[in-house]
Structures are given as structure tokens and as C-alpha cells.
Amino acid sequence: MKNFKFKIYDNNYNVKIVSHEDNQINLEVNGTAYTVEMKSEVKKPKTPTLVRSAAKTPAAPKVNPGSANTKVVAPIPGVVVSVDVKIGDEVKVDDRLLVLDAMKMENHITAEKAGTVSAIHVTAGQQVLQSDVLIELS
């Protein structure tokens, strides 16, 4: 198969690999036959393994049922696409209050509690951060 020449401490060695099967190698060193068993190596991956933590779910709007005013906050950062209510409107649970565009997806922000819109803190096209107050209900 292959021939190699080694020089170790001023001694010359001619090594000829006769056969190689699995982890057994038959070779000749200066005409003397040897059978060598190779040790299996633990192969390390060349690229690092990516370990991700569990995805955090966006916080739902916080509602305090005992409070006179309920603040609807942004669950994620984004851009307000439209505000679907105005001050003085009566809203029921699950009525759409506004649409928030985040990561190229439209998120419908709905009322978690029935009430009257008492304040609107955003306009269409405005960028908001997570936990910014969007609308207040009373």
C-alpha cells in the first residue's frame, strides 16, 4: 500500500503498510512483519454546537381586575399599524383595540377587561417598546 521512511535518533526505518482493515494494520518495519491495533479516537465536532435557551413568550397585557384604570401595555416591541378605538368608546372583552406590527407580523391587541377607553397613548406609525402603555381603560 504505502511506504514511509523514518529517522529516529539516527536510526533509519523503512515502514510498509501491507493492509488496513477496521482498526487492524499489518505493516513491515525493515522487513519484519507487525500487526498493530489502532486505538479509536473520540472525534470532536469541528463546529460548535448551538445551544439555545427556551424561547420567552411575550408577556400578555397586564390587567388588574380590582383597579379603576386598566393599562394595556405592548407585549413586544413594534410599530402601531392602526388604533381601532377612540376615547370614550365602550369595549368588551376580546374587542380589538389596536394592531401592532412586530417582526413582520401583525398582532391584534385586544381588551382583557370590559370598560371605557379613557386614554390613548399611541398613534398609527409610532414605534413602541415592550411594556410601553398603549391604552388605558376605566
UniProtKB/TrEMBL annotation:
Keywords: Biotin. Residues 46-66 are annotated as: Disordered. InterPro entries: Biotin_BS, Biotin_Carboxyl_Carrier/Decarb, Biotin_lipoyl, Single_hybrid_motif. Signal peptide: none annotated. It comes from the Bacteria. Residues 62-138 form the Lipoyl-binding domain. This is Biotin/lipoyl-binding protein. It comes from Aureibaculum marinum.
